[in-house]
């Protein structure tokens, strides 16, 4: 009984920070880096831009972009995904949040091949993303996973809050594009980081300097 009470108190005191990955923790879009290998970067980047601005349905845009990756070697994909550049200040921001008592999670409409190695480097507690399918080491142009829809980040955030006993009051969300709107809906502190206009409109705070350490200043001022 004592242990159960202790866990309840501990859970109630926890704070949660949820980050988008592409163009928030990582400096760019994973799928654009992959498409560059096939000479299709501009075509994929255009679809990505339209989706992040909120002009295209995320699910359909994701499928369209992934189809263009058909034929890419999985080994080349993994090589690219493990060497993606982090945004300036990412390491310091994550370390600072954890020092301040936050559990830190990454949600990505991109791919776990990219989020897992980056989150391991950053010390992020968990990552949720999609998977690019391959046959015999060659990408098939198909994708599946936990973050396929525009509503996926919000749905997953609510589930994590319930599991951990964390309220919206103690939740921070950081993102840059339209598919981050659903997680903003369930966080009290909503930081639009170098973001598209549609996300800035829903934010409580806006950071236009490409340095994630800026969010620590925001947190300390709350």
Describe, in plain words, how this protein is organized in 3D.
- The chain is built from eleven helices and seven strands.
- Strand 3 and strand 4 (138-145) form a beta hairpin.
- It has 222 residues and is α/β, with parallel strands linked by helices.
- The protein has a seven-stranded mixed beta sheet, sandwiched between helices.
- The longest helix has 13 residues, at 152-164.
- The chain is globular.
- Helix content is 44%, strand content 21%.
- It has helices spanning 2-12, 30-36, 41-52, 58-67, 74-81, 90-99, 112-122, 152-164, 181-184, 197-200, 214-220, and strands at 15-20, 102-111, 126-135, 138-145, 171-175, 189-193, 205-207.
- It has one domain (2-220): Rossmann fold, CATH 3.40.50.
